[in-house]
From TrEMBL:
Signal peptide residue numbers: 1-28
Keywords attached to this entry: Acyltransferase, Glutathione biosynthesis, Hydrolase, Signal, Transferase, Zymogen
PTM entry text: Cleaved by autocatalysis into a large and a small subunit.
Similarity comment text for this entry: Belongs to the gamma-glutamyltransferase family.
Protein name: Glutathione hydrolase proenzyme
Reactions performed catalytically: an N-terminal (5-L-glutamyl)-[peptide] + an alpha-amino acid = 5-L-glutamyl amino acid + an N-terminal L-alpha-aminoacyl-[peptide]; glutathione + H2O = L-cysteinylglycine + L-glutamate; an S-substituted glutathione + H2O = an S-substituted L-cysteinylglycine + L-glutamate
EC id: 2.3.2.2, 3.4.19.13
GO terms assigned for molecular function: leukotriene C4 gamma-glutamyl transferase activity
Assembly and binders: This enzyme consists of two polypeptide chains, which are synthesized in precursor form from a single polypeptide.
Pfam families, per the entry: G_glu_transpept (PF01019)
Amino acid sequence: MQLRYQAGRAALAVGLLVCGASITPAGAQQEADAIAPEQATTTGAFATASPRVSEALAAKARGVPVVARDWMIAAAHPLAVEAGADILQKGGSAADAMVAVQSVLGLVEPQSSGLGGGAFLVWYDAASGEVTTLDGRETAPAAATPTLFQDGQGTPLKFFDAVVGGRSVGVPGTPMLMHQAHQRWGRAPWAGLFDRAIELAENGFPASARLAAMIAGDAERLARNPATAAYFLPGGAPLQAGTLVKNAGYAETLRSLAVRGPEAFYSGSIATDIVTAVQSDANPGVLSMQDFAGYRVKQRPPVCVSYRIYEICGMGPPSSGGLTVGQIFKLIEPFNLAGRSPDDAETWRIFGDAARLAFADRGRYMADIDFVPMPLKGLLDPDYLATRAALLAGEKALETVAPGQPAFDHALLYADDDALELPSTSHISIVDQAGNALSMTTTIENAFGSRLMVRGFLLNNELTDFSFRSHRDGVPIANRVEPGKRPRSSMAPTIVLRDGRPVLVIGSPGGSAIIGYVAQAILNTLDWNMNVQQALARPHRNNRFGPFELEKDTAVVALQPQLEALGFTVALREMNSGLHAIRIGEDGLYGGADPRREGIALGE
Ligand code: GLU
């Protein structure tokens, strides 16, 4: 193996081997209804794939993990994974590989993430043993007000009336996050990390089956903006799977970023073009050049909770991911699910109501901590969680679920949130040769974001992750729009540690369903010892706002009568997660990719 970026493979291998709202039920229904059916067929779309990609796809289809010793990467598209794998193979770090993966994802999976969006990153540093989190979330413009998503009478706008156009666009964070991660943890030269994406953008890539299906399903909204329509609906017709797509504008943008770094994006003509597109749209936004100049990536303390012999570390506010996943684990811990069957209705009663309790707190208390006082410690306080867990001791589903009253040092008065998050987004998990681990969830929010395309990439609609309502009966909502604030997220990039070393790197897209997808896949792996591929493939069961969601057309629907007998209302839904995970064992690395999407894991 060639190690172009650093010194000894042996030293690195040793490093690795020692690692051994709540929205209302009505809102939830609206969410379920609005999700376009877009299940991917994976293997067919990549018929001409390289041998290593074909092997990885075959492993995924057989339900077995990809196994490796030195490094591993799992993400949502084979071309992006290969770009990252090539960097890792040459001795690049997980941060280097992420830059390459993200830049290719922005091309081949443009509906989910890219330069026009935001991301959260969790990093485990092998040398120091520390976990660091970076917040590259989009921010609201300085001119935004709490009524941004209300009509003249103060009534909240309909979801897609808010989403499509300039109004929903926040200052993108992903380009600066890529650069900061590289500055902190990169080994390879920055500029070279964009080579693969530039080459693919110039020479073309085949549109995947999933991308084509999603374009066809969203054609009316994509047609509203001329630049967006020209790219996704050439000649007025949706791009077909397998069509070779070129994106010269994106190649040009990447070249500027490669040469000039984030300044190329945050000051100068790229920012000007974004601001112009947002302000001149028929549904205009208030983003300005000053907002770009003021954008910062923020380092935040990770949110870590102990669970049995493990420590589960994730992203704190403005994401609700780490806290809500953490609360779920603390609420189920007294019930020893490891000692119960993973198919038992009683197991899922406990998990489902734990998730409901956690979601009630999420809807009341969680938002951008730089803007609203949040009971961060109180929400994870052992005595508080023991009181909440005691609610699960009965035999039936909880009849009512309300937020608790976590300890706080001054009075807290918030009303419940009604933000609606629909799934798009992407997740990247990487372990490099030095044993560093990276877990990053990256998004432009809704599929195709605001549907505004500038310079070859789509602009986010992340501001619709704020609550459209600012108050309820005169009481303010923590996650209301405010100038410069970051909308609450559900993204839950996670690294699980044991004895201070990472054992699982995981995350998923899925809007507010992310929290349940991630919690459950962790449970499948840690408590029931499923291999990582089985853990991701296992049919979903989830509860956010009351109805118990079971993944339709899977074996898990057999639980329906039993859950109903326990008092739950059951909803059968398409549950389009996109989990990507790496299990770090004593004897090597095991990678898994969600069979519901097109991704793979590759390692060596
Ligand atoms: N915008 C959502 C969030 O930040 C993610 C959307 C998705 O996963 O599709 O939580």
